[in-house]
Structure formats: structure tokens, C-alpha cells
Amino acid sequence: MENNNYFAEMMKSPMPREKKKSATSAYIDNLLNEILFNQERQKLMKSIDQALDEGNRKSFIELSSKLNELEKKFKA
């Protein structure tokens, strides 16, 4: 199946439209969640690096805990 025929082939698919929408919605939700996770993770990593550079142990521990919680939530 070529890319230009993809939509036409999907419309012929035996899967009911509601299930198609559900699958598409689930995919989009997962994609958005992954994007949000990555942005928050990058933000925390940058803050952790800054805390290390400044020798700020308290901030490092707090930010590391937040990062661990975020990663546990995303993998759950």
C-alpha cells in the first residue's frame, strides 16, 4: 500500500469507525503524554544540573525526588 492510498485503504478497513476513533485518540493521548513527560524531564534535568553546579544539595535532592516520581508515573 502506497502512502497516497493509505487513507482510502483505512476507510475500507473492516474496523468500525468508533474503534478507529478510539485507537486514534489513544495514540494521540499517548503521544501527548510522552511529549509532556519529555519536556518536564528536560526541565528537571536542567535544574538538577544547575543545583549541582551551584553545590546546592537541598535543591538537588528535591529535584531528584521529583524526577524519580515523574519517571515512576510515566512508566506505570
Automatic annotation (TrEMBL):
Residue ranges constituting the IDEAL domain according to the UniProt record: 31-67
Name of one Pfam family that matches: IDEAL
Gene3D superfamilies, A to Z: Virus Scaffolding Protein, Chain A
InterPro entries the record matches: IDEAL_dom (IPR014957), Virus_scaffolding_prot_C (IPR027393)
TM regions (residue ranges): none
Full protein name: IDEAL domain-containing protein
Lineage: Bacteria, Bacillati, Bacillota, Bacilli, Bacillales
